[in-house]
## 1
Amino acid sequence: MVAERNVSYTREILKTVGISPERIQMFHCSAAEGQHFQDEATRISETIKNLGSNPLKNSTPSKQEEKESKKKKTE
C-alpha cells in the first residue's frame, strides 16, 4: 500500500533529522468504527503530547526573529 510506504519513509526521515518517529502513525478503520477512530486519535494525541514540542521549532529562528536580528545588525 502506498500510504504505508510513505509513512515508513517519513518515519525514516524523522529519525535521520533527530525527531521521534512516533510522531507519525497510521491506523486502519472503517467509517463504521467511530469508537475505534476516537480511541486511536486520542492515543496518538497523548503520545505526541508526551513526546513534547517539536525539537526543530525552538532551534530555528522565526521570521520575526530574523527580521529583528537583521535590524539590530544595521543599527
## 2
Amino acid sequence: MPNSKNAKRNYRKEYDNYHSSTTQKKNRAGRNAARAKLKKGGAVVKGKDVAHRNGNPRDNRRANLTVKPASKNRSYARTRTAGKRNPRA
C-alpha cells in the first residue's frame, strides 16, 4: 500500500515483484480450485471467502475448507513462518 494519501498503487510493480512468482501462481490456483470445489458441492460462496483452516491454500481437502464472511477470514494476522496465528479462527 502507498505510504502517502496521494501516492498511487503501482500494480505492475506489485505483480512483477510478488504475484508473478511460481509459488504465488500455484497458491492462487489452489484458492481458485477450493472455491470451485465448494461451489460444485453446493456451498453458497457468493459474497464470501473460502477459508483454508490450516492456512495452506494448496491443501484442498474438504475437511480443511470452510465458507466465511470476508471480515472473519481476513481478521487475523498471518506470519511468514507460521501462516495463520489462529488457525481455527
## 3
Amino acid sequence: MTDNKKKTGKPDSYLISFKERYEFDYAVGQLQKQVSDTTKQEAKDALTKAAKKVNPSEGREKIMRAARKILNS
C-alpha cells in the first residue's frame, strides 16, 4: 500500500508503535543504553508498564521517561 501524498501532517517518528516488533525492540535497546545494568526483559517490562500508564499518542519521550522512572525505582 502506498502513502497518500495529499495527507500531510506530523510524522509518527515521535511515537512508539507497539504493534511493530522492530520499533518496540529499538525502544528496548535505547532504554537499555540509558539505564545501566538493565536486562532486556526488565526493559521490555518497564516499557510495557509505562505504555499502560502513558497514552502512546503523547509521544516516545514521555513513555521513555516513565520507563526510566520505573527502572530506577
## 4
Amino acid sequence: MSLRRLAVFRLLALLATFAGAMAPVAAAEVVRLGVTAGPHAQIAEVAKKVAARDGLEIRIVEFQDYIQPDAALDAGDLDANSFQHRPFLDSQVKARGYRITAVGDTVTFPMGFYSKRWKSLAELPRGAKVGIQNDPSNSGRALLLLQKYGVIRLKPGAGVSATTLDIVDNPKGLQIVQLEAAQLARSLDDLDASAINTNFAITAGLVPTRDAIAIEEARSPYANLLAVRTADKDKPWVAKLVKAFQSPEVRSFVSEKFAGSMVPAF
C-alpha cells in the first residue's frame, strides 16, 4: 500500500472516530413525579437512581398536602404521582372527575392515633377531642380504627366510606374534630388524640410502632400506589417507573430505613 493511500485511510479512520465522538447521546426520558414531603420523597429518591439505569430520569416535585398532586397530574403539570392509597384516589376520581389510573402498588403506611396526654384510646375521658382527617377516604379509615379499638360503633356496612354521620354509638361522647391530614400532627397540643397518617407522623418525629396509642395492622386495603393519567397507562415509561419503585433496592431501603413503620406492598 502506498504511503499516500495509507495516509488517506488513516484520515478517514480519524474522521469516523471524531464523528462518533460528536454523535448526540440519546437523552433520558423525563418523568415529572409528584410526591408528598417525607417518606414518599425519600422512597422516590431511591427509585430515581434505579430508573436512571433504564434511561428514565425522574424529576421529583414535592407537595405539602394531599390535594394538589392529583390536581397537578390531571392538569398535565406532572406525569405521575406517588403519595396516596386506592380509596383516596377513588374518592378523588369520583368527586373531581380526574382521568387518573393506578399502575402499581408501593408501600403501606399503617395509620395510628397519637396523644400527648393519654396512653391508650381506652383512657380517653368523656367529651375528649379527637382529631381525624377531613378527606372522605382517610376519615373513614380513622373512624374504622376507632371502632376497632371499641370507642365508637359505626352503622353496619359503613366500611371505608364511613362518615361521622355513621356513628351510632359514642359512649364517651367524643368530639370528633376534622382537619386537613397535614395539620393533625401539629394539632396534638390542642387535642386529646389524633389520627395521623404515617408519612406525616414520621415527618413530625413520631415513630408509629413506638408512639401510636392505636395502630392499624401492617397489611390493609390502604396500600399506596403510583398513579398516571389514564391516557398514559400503557406507555413504556410507565412500566419502567413501576419497575423502579418495585425494585429490590426500594424494598431494602423501606425495610432498613423505616423499621416496620411501613411495609412494601409489592
